[in-house]
Queue: 2 jobs
Job 1
Amino acid sequence: MAKHETPMLDQLESGPWPSFVSDIKQEIAHRKANPNNVELQIPADVPEDILGVLELSFKHGRTHWKHGGIVGVFGYGGGVIGRYCDQPEMFPGVAHFHTIRVNQPAGKFYTTEYLRKLCDLWEFRGSGITNMHGSTGDIIFLGTHTKQLEEIFFELTHNLNQDLGGSGSNLRTPADCIGMARCEYACYDTQDLCHTLTNEYQDELHRPAFPYKFKFKFDGCPNCCVASIARSDMSFVGTWRDDIKIDQEAVKAYIGGEIAPNGGAHAGRDWGPFDIQKEVIGLCPTGCMWMEGDKLMIDNRECTRCMHCINVMPRALRIGDDRGLSILVGAKAPILDGAQMGSLLVPFIKAEAPYDEIKEVIEKVWDWWMEEGKNRERLGELIKRQGFQRLLEMTEIEPMPQHVQEPRSNPYIFWKEEEVEGGWERDVNEFRKYHLR
Amino acid sequence: MDENEARKTIVATLEGKKGKSKFYLKDFYAMFPEEKPRTIKNIVNKMVGEGTLEYWSSGSTTLIGLKGVGKQAGAEHED
Amino acid sequence: MAFVSSGYDPNEPMKNRITDIGPRHYEEFYPPVIAKNKGKWLYHEILEPGVLVHVAESGDEVYTVRVGGARLMSVTHIREICEIAEKHCGGYVRWTTRNNIEFMVDSKDKVAPLKKDLESRKFDGGSFKFPVGGTGAGITNIVHTQGWIHCHTPATDASGPVKACMDELFADFQSMRMPAQLRVSLACCLNMCGAVHCSDIAILGYHRKPPMLDHEYLDKMCEIPLAIAACPTAAIKPAKIEINGQKLNTVAINNSRCMFCGNCYTMCPALPLSDKEGDGIVIMAGGKVSNRISAPKFSKVVVAFLPNEPPRWPSTTDTIKKIVEAYASGAKKYERLGEWAERIGWERFFERCDLPFTHHLIDDFRDPAYFTWRQTTQFKF
Ligand code: HEM
Ligand code: SF4
Ligand code: SF4
Ligand code: SF4
Ligand code: SF4
């Protein structure tokens, strides 16, 4: 007999997509049977209460969770999110039920040995329910009691060599794309940079340092698989400065229909025979490609590295060899002043360990934001408030046309006194010699 | 700056605020206009480690106050 | 259920404390074929929906079978993933940014047994545990946030609508008939933890009623200055009220300034704002994050409000299907949803998708609004 009736949730068990309701039910059964005699540290029926609360929300059309903010592990400002149920008597198992963010490994590769240890710990001391993963990237342990928080942290650090992720006004857990581990488009080692910076900035990650949250994300190329350009205060996007490498034999094979375009991504529909003119050359946003006989030509100086041609013909075209990354800053979700996309700050920087040049840019940006940022003002909002020029000044980067989509269309330039010949102090009497009152 | 003096200033300032127990990092910077934010941030975080101050996190923002002071602890039944 | 100590001593929290060690090193977790060929991959190919091969300079190949997952996952389910990875993949597995799970093997003959095994596993309720797909010009997994399962400000659920939508879009998870990839995301309130603001189709929970005021408890439960400071639009002011002859400190909310963000409720449980009729879903469309061909774009609001309809949210899934079908039949090869809408014009977009246009869809929020109005005589009838 189920502890709580869940007629609405039960309707989410049918249909082909994996049902989280069925999954939680299998966890309920597992905890009840407890085949390994685990000394469960929070009640066995907690997952039943989770389903029960959710069913009640389905019925009421309202959440039944309240916020809490004090709980955490000693000395850390992030990594735990306090959570309380507003029907504690109906659902005692989840009356206090806090989230733990566990810092995922770069690239999200795992050995099963490690995963099993995580599962054992979370079955023993928590609800057994997780998010793989939260949208920032962390492994999320979804719900445990206050008393278990320190115990879990102790076990994570002592037995799993594993730390928590970020929350609050901290550096948030950085995240990266799979990059060089399995992607031929990667222009730098996203995992290495992500891991290196995560460790370099552990203090900022665990203890509040900033006016608000701060996110790093790492994309190996302009395809932006982790959406760094849209959702990180500082976005690192791989790029290159030299020529796209062309294998003319493979180009011929694409034209001849021997290789499917776009790695076979369009195989589900008959789009007709591959037409290089229409599908590649004609769609190049800069018009910098053409055919000379059966040879494909690229005017690389004009290419903006949009990745389209490379995506369509990965076996014929390869990223260049002079690789590095672009840094864009200030992306954020809409709240409060509307969404902001990242703005290009550093067009090209080499990405080689120990990444000192990159750290220098980061720290200059932070110094400015820590000094000038208002409470709960994201970096992108500060840049908007004080101007892109100010950002350049603080990071000691020279302005260049790459920094803008287009130059300003108003002439209202706030000239500084030192920029104007002779300064602003003038002698009005001298002026009056030539201009009567 | 003398760190112990700074500690005393922080505690005294917070105790002097009526009706409000949680503060942003910026409020601490304002107590020491001459100092670098990073220096103050490090002292504040140290004081949390020593048990004088505590964090309160909304999940997205962190506030800081004297340990155990304020109404949140009661409302969250964590007192 | 006896308490078992980990070794942590509450009286001496700093004793033996380990901190600031960061995540595990990624190299511990690379399958051998990845460790060996990292940075030396030549090209990849999608062999069939959900199955990829990557070929390295060394001639080595890695075959990946990608399966969808509910990101809300039990340890029992993760252990089953481990069991499969141990049986077929040498004990390695990975997750993608979009909550898919990738099983990798180093030779082609290992693919079919792996795939068969994955496809054969079903939950008791009948759904697939590991549906293969999510590649190429199709619709991959929906990234989403917490919703009613664990957050305090959601205006809709997350896991429920995602399950309902993915059931409807399932055929396109397992095929590649779209003009380009189509990314769907869900965030359950306007804080948009899930950063849905750059998705081809975004499902966004939205409140439409300002918070209620629990005057009697407000001053007892909350610090009024904190609730006031939390409001991004400065809609909250301190106030005094008399209840049963008792003078109480409380707040007043200027309802017309409220943008329904729930920040005040975060600081003060005496200001709840969730409401069955008030809360529901906004549909946004046409965003992208890739720099391919055109620049990254924000999603635009195309449906101002749909009601919450648990358990299966039919109005939401119907609307999404309409948009998907209009896009699939109208867009050119490689064209993302937003690029298609811009090419045909947004006036045509509403016509093709059979969506009504209402005044809510005209931007009036702060400065950038002006740039979204039509400032040309070029438009379509
Ligand atoms: C006042 C504003 C905000 C508050 C009070 C808030 C609060 C929260 C809380 C309590 C959670 C945890 C839910 C849980 O796991 O139980 C959360 C998750 C999260 N928040 Fe926020 N948030 C705010 C704004 C934002 C914004 C603007 C963003 C993005 C820019 C964001 C990004 C995230 C992310 C990525 C998660 C993880 C979501 C998931 O994967 O489930 N938050 N937020
Ligand atoms: S962002 Fe680029 S390098 Fe990274 S996984 Fe995507 S395509 Fe590959
Ligand atoms: S990467 Fe883009 S801009 Fe460069 S040649 Fe290819 S299609 Fe043109
Ligand atoms: S989007 Fe809003 S409701 Fe959903 S998890 Fe984030 S803060 Fe909570
Ligand atoms: S919901 Fe948001 S905008 Fe409305 S009163 Fe509360 S904090 Fe202010």
Job 2
Amino acid sequence: MSTLNSKIPPGPLAEKWSYYKEHAKLVNPANKRKLEVIVVGTGLAGASAAATLAELGYQVKAFCFQDSPRRAHSIAAQGGINAAKNYKNDGDSVYRLFYDTIKGGDFRAREGNVYRLADVSRNIIDQCVAQGVPFARDYGGLLDNRSFGGAQVSRTFYARGQTGQQLLLGAYGALERQVGLGNVKMYSRHEMLELVKIDGKARGIIAKNLVTGELERHFGHAVLLCTGGYGNVFFLSTNAMGSNVTAAWKAHKQGAYFGNPCYTQIHPTCIPVTGDYQSKLTLMSESLRNDGRVWVPKTKEDAKAIREGKKKPEDIKEEDRDYYLERKYPSFGNLCPRDIASRAAKEACDDGRGIVPSGFGVFLDFGDAIKRLGVEVVKARYGELFPMYQNITNEDPLKTPMKIYPAVHYTMGGLWVDYELMTSIPGCYALGEANFSDHGANRLGASALMQGLADGYFVIPYTIGNYLSSEIFTKSIPTDHPAFAEAENAVKERTQKLLSIKGKRTVDDFHKALGKIMWEYCGMARTAEGLTKARKMIQDLRKEFWSDVNVPGTINEFNPELDKAGRVADFIELGELMVVDALNRNESCGGHFRVEYQDQGEAKRDDENYRYVAAWEFKGVDADPVLHKEDLVYENIQLQVRSYK
Amino acid sequence: MKFNLKVWRQKNAKDQGKLVDYTIDNINADMSFLEMVDVLNDELVRKGEDPIAFDHDCREGICGMCSMYISGRAHGPQHAATTCQLYMRSFKDGDTIYVEPWRAKAFPVIKDLVTDRSAFDRIIAAGGFVSVNTGQAQDANALPVEKADAEKAMDAAACIGCGACVAACPNGAAMLFVSAKISQLALFPQGQPERNTRAINMVNQMDEEGFGNCTNIGACEAECPKEIKLTNIARMNRDYLAASLISE
Ligand SMILES: Cc1cc2nc3c(=O)[nH]c(=O)nc-3n(C[C@H](O)[C@H](O)[C@H](O)COP(=O)(O)OP(=O)(O)OC[C@H]3O[C@@H](n4cnc5c(N)ncnc54)[C@H](O)[C@@H]3O)c2cc1C
Ligand code: SF4
Ligand code: FES
């Protein structure tokens, strides 16, 4: 059994990153030109990494499955990005951002990584502004901030309700600049379907040209997976339709450990599910909780009347409303972290006080904010969000409260990486949401954008040199090498298998079935009994999938159903691992809530036995995965019960 | 609700393509247009037929991937909305709906409703950026920007690169898209050093890609889901002209 070495540099917390940079090996410019790097994914993490590595002189090949790198799922991020600039002079600092992030993650992330993240957060804002990212500004022309859940300072930078879009377009511009200069070769409408390993090191990928169906072999001295999160394992989530785990899962099956797969984030403010036909759920940015107040009626009777349309929210008097977040968490109120706000919503609805026909919905009310600030200010603050809500639901949130409910949103788990962002396969890195690294068991709002850009702009450009410096004598390996042929054959066989089954159920049928199992047993509340049952159900579903799925068309054409089938097959395998991980973790922490381990509804951690990262090794589809533990060492902060009361 | 659909089916870039009739029933008014197509595709797959290929990803109006030309309008009848944000309540029960791909010389069809819009990426690669390598930036607040300019820049930056402007334009011009990026950067101090070369390089690339000329029709603005304004085109023309004069 290999040991997990997180490679945290020595020295005091605040100096670890400087120490690392000063001691990392360098690659000289002439040698950089001879080194090829594959970047899979061009979201915030991938686009920033590809652009920066190309600027440094590496030869970069970048891949994405959309028709343009500008469309990566990062584009959808609404609310903002954190940075410890302390422009508001409200007492923020690198240490505070570090501390909030560790605490927000319920003390399940690495100190060293998170401190580095908080530290480089400041450079990110500088870089983005220099690129022309149109962040919100105040009347003096300086950058504006707002506050986000889990923090008591205003450190979130934003561009109306389109922060992710603007940050991604900045990174995309930088990437396209390098494409224009010939330093990056961009492969859009390409999907990575296998990782190629030679002598134990990552040396390339097999990618499918989604337009022609052709399989291509690509060599790289290193491979970066920046392929986003796996929230779509639940079928319904706030993720884009194409978001998937395939690239990460292929790496996992090739030996990369998967870290904390059960840590998923259920976001408290999404538009509730209304029908079976629904293909995705829409997030309403957490920033709305700055001005919106969450409530349900105090009594079941009132809630029932609202559900049945006999009463309107306006009919419920102030004293008959339960602003349950303000009641339960007075010091953070509506701005408590996501896992807590989500669980509280579930609790209220399970108590029979939900306010939408399905029973699963609560109010997010802007009435007070409008009284205090006026309609125009509230409208201006949330740009696109109100019209978006109105368009979907046909209701105007300026006139009647929004209806919201938690939905799957983000995955803290992902490929296990060390301090250098390298997975357990040498030369294979994971960046952004695809890795497990910085958010512990729960991610605070506005910190995923920060992490993706930190990884891509400011971390990997240093850490990759430390590896590639010993690769300068490795000539590009021709892709007729047997390892490439073998990997390509494996992909071909699997694809042919998918196409040959011609069963009775559609790919979406299976995806929805998987989603139901995951949501019910591995969602907001988990029990050993439910998880055990779920594992068996997923195993059965997998067998059924491989004997009864119906994938139309052929391999040599543009065939989105086939692409989807491959992704769902991987989701099914991942789902089982998530359940195994959730079952293993006999504690509640952050987004992982095991009903057996609670203190009157609050998560009860078990630091003595579970203060570790669970990194799982793949042993075969039908075999049990093997658990490797990375002990989490806290030298600078004291573990506490996470309280927002 | 029930609808008669006439959908453009084209096997690949070389195929001629034609409109094919479908009827679809039991559609809920709260479904999005794409969810309606999902339902139809589900039926087609169950019948062993080839589902309709279309581009989509975020389904919340921000990625710019969805792109259907619906009954003669880019992204359909609803103002300022992408195809994925169009809901069936915008149609009447029993309507006949035409669904076609973007049609423009610079956007060749790949299959059915899917087109190749990579020309937009090449235009950005020609100059749609500020040339600043990672790590070279000064403190973000060292460059104040007047709020009004920042707001205008943000208005322009909201472009999602969907290409509806091109599809809506009888000339197949890409002026609205190109001018949005040029305006955004021209409104910022950071964008000044490359202002002239940017305008020239992007406009030249646009011409090379086979987009048509602008004859001030304004269909682009009318159909743009993000309400990008024609004033951006005026700003771009000024920059281009100024830059051409200097370069001569
Ligand atoms: C609706 C929404 C709102 C959000 N709002 C915020 C916010 O306000 N603040 C915040 O900090 N975070 C927010 N988040 C989270 C944040 O947006 C994401 O975590 C982050 O953008 C992920 O970036 P990424 O670069 O890791 O991956 P992504 O942006 O998901 O990019 C993945 C890339 O990988 C490519 N890819 C995937 N698989 C393959 C494959 N097999 N082959 C080839 N390419 C592949 C895709 O094409 C894409 O380019 C939000 C998330 C959602 C869903
Ligand atoms: S200008 Fe409008 S229509 Fe044109 S690409 Fe941008 S968002 Fe789409
Ligand atoms: S699918 Fe993203 S804009 Fe429509």
